[in-house]
Amino acid sequence: MGKNMLEPKVKPEGLSVRADELLGLSPELINSVRDSLREQNQTRAKMIVASLRASEFADLLQLLSPNLRRRLIECMGTDFDPQVLAELEGDIQEEISEQLGPVSLANMIIRLDIDDALELIITLRKDRQREILKQLPSELRNLVEVGLAFPKDSAGRLMGREFVAVPSFWTVDDTIKFLREADNLPNEFYEIFIVNPRHRPIGKVSLSNILRNEKPTKISSIMLSEIVTVPAIMDQEEVAFVFSQKDLVSVPVVDESYRLIGVITVDDVLDVIQEEAEEDIMRLGGVKSDDLYSAAFQTGRSRFSWLFLNLITAIVVSIVIGIFESTLEQIVMLAVLMPIVASMGGNAGTQTMTVAVRALATKELSDTNAMRVMGKEFLVGVYNGILFATLVGGVAWFWTNSLKIGGVMAVAMMITLIMAALSGMTIPLILQRAGTDPAIASGVVLTTITDIIAFGVFLGFATLLLL
Amino acid sequence: MGKNMLEPKVKPEGLSVRADELLGLSPELINSVRDSLREQNQTRAKMIVASLRASEFADLLQLLSPNLRRRLIECMGTDFDPQVLAELEGDIQEEISEQLGPVSLANMIIRLDIDDALELIITLRKDRQREILKQLPSELRNLVEVGLAFPKDSAGRLMGREFVAVPSFWTVDDTIKFLREADNLPNEFYEIFIVNPRHRPIGKVSLSNILRNEKPTKISSIMLSEIVTVPAIMDQEEVAFVFSQKDLVSVPVVDESYRLIGVITVDDVLDVIQEEAEEDIMRLGGVKSDDLYSAAFQTGRSRFSWLFLNLITAIVVSIVIGIFESTLEQIVMLAVLMPIVASMGGNAGTQTMTVAVRALATKELSDTNAMRVMGKEFLVGVYNGILFATLVGGVAWFWTNSLKIGGVMAVAMMITLIMAALSGMTIPLILQRAGTDPAIASGVVLTTITDIIAFGVFLGFATLLLL
Predict the structure, then answer these.
(1) Quick check: ipTM above 0.85?
(2) Per-residue model confidence (pLDDT) at position B4
(3) Are residues B181 and B243 in the same domain?
(4) Contact B277 A281 (CB under 8 A)
(5) Structural domain that includes position A319
(6) Single pTM value for the model
């Protein structure tokens, strides 16, 4: 009897779904939704999307053209899950909010968790926000208004307002009874917080600890005391950093009097970490983070400013080259060779800059080790400077049959690579100190400097030695 | 009576620590550790670091020079927390493992969770691995060997082997009793998995649900059935994607017969998401991810290959420029202006490429919307092409006083920006299809193409129209 007869290759009925066998958003599903919408077959479209989770439905909407997107929303009518709205990217969220109109939008917001509701309302225009707030029941309106008062991307906006807090003199039994009877608990929670009479957090207990201790046990004897809390005004990036540093599953949020006002759980932080890393990647590339979903005109306009800045710096670089016009006139081969030096300088600088920008973001680079790292980058510059000076000098000598041009090329390469390494490290450090996000501007400043050094040194030495 | 008298500004005694008031790794702490180590004052150094968590101690080690690092490890002796070793970056982990020697290293590994132990052993050289394995007790050795058999970065390597699985016919009471008595449970867990007699997962219950239901309740009546599982060989990036798509806190890992063999929790995934985003950023910048901590020589060598590839492409670009040597000889001003076109092309292409690489990584770009996104990028290229053609043409006309040069510049800019947008989108798509990570090679391919287009079109038109 072979093993195959005992272990079926296909998933046995009633078992859980293995993630690699999930249907989810398959290309087939997307295409049949598209076809149904084009054929105005609303029933079929609704049937196909019925199996999707909110996040998958949101992805589907983002993949459709604006026209089909509008039709799909229309045919969902009141069956449209508000959670889908919460999962959408900014631009598309706004588009669909507009389509729904204030009344149905307000009805959807009522069904969302407060943190999702807040996030959604924030994306709306100010006048829209006021319209929606008017439609909300007063209790929810108050919660939203309190939330809107916290700064953008702060712990106060990220936190959930439902959590479990008990006094330290309770027993495990008291706590379990409370949990069975209370009705405004969060859907899922992993830890219980212990507060003093002023509602300030003094400890926490994980649910597994509650379950594993006998009923008469005092909470104070099993709680972890001196836990970490975050102030409501702390930036979400800092909150994410605290989570990964302290390996937390949830963290209590406190107001300026240290009172417990909310809880942030690890799933919220998962999104923050993804967003922040995304933001760094996008900024290094000179684009906005929801670029993919914006209309062509909007994308074009938002990329324009970055390219315009680059144009200014490129003209500055050209002016530097222009200084050596008469040198170029006498030895045209220099114009053929000079982009090699600039390209190598730009790339070497970008390598160092990427490491520096990322290390600043993760707090691995700071004033305490900046000098040591700078020393290392200098050595890296010297190492690759020597290697590439030899290589490039050789190539130039061979190509132009002039030892002098080879020599100029080698010296320029050496100086450029060392300066590129130092600039790649210094520029992000200076920008960070000046209070700018180093991911935004480092790239354009860096290549301007490496270009000026590369062209200036190469053409400068050529003028001195060759003419 | 002012509010200030009631609410002290300083943290009241006994309360939890607010994250922004955490001492953690302050520059003062780092400096006093450094001073103590330099003065060989081992007792003081040990005392200072005693308050640090494992992750903070790991960060501290990474901030110290190799020399002080060695001294700190020496003075910690057997008090060195194995968890610190687990938190270190690859290169430094290896360095300290070497320093500790096989016997103390094995003793530390015994005290780690199996997933951390595995991760640590994987960083070691093959011969070291064998040495360490020999030192481990046979049960742990077996676990490690099973783990090593899973592919790198797979769910099997990431998962914990300790989890709670119960049969569906148990009651809440049976489960609580089991939890109180069992002794090989994980430190922290948030969900209990339900398995059938063949140990295949058929559902899960959160701890909060166990706590909130009466004792005689059957687990089968409160469990969530048809849950998502991941196969042990699934890549960790895919696992992270499943977590964020399905908003999970933990996921059961199954073998090829669908049997439950481990559990991955959200805190492991937090690290994966950070690592993968880090990897993308680093690859786009042409560096390795532990670059910051490598020695200068190692860093220099690892960056060399990227720069060498760039040198080859820069030489190709120079050869293209070389074709137009006689044109440049007649109008030297072209050499001064040509870097502007190339720089704009490179930057516009990088913008599109960044969006494409990131959208491929997050699965927001796929075959089903590639054509639409491409169409949009074409429009963006045309939009910015027209604007910058006008701007740059005007600048060139004004500068050279030649309408013809201005015209050539404008046409070259227009064509380059459109081609840059299309290449920025196409190159990552082609690389992805060819099975390469688009983040690694897109940048160097892209700038080679935009440079060749920019210089080729500009000098080509100039040759046709100006001579």
Answers:
(1) no
(2) 38
(3) yes
(4) yes
(5) 295-466
(6) 0.81
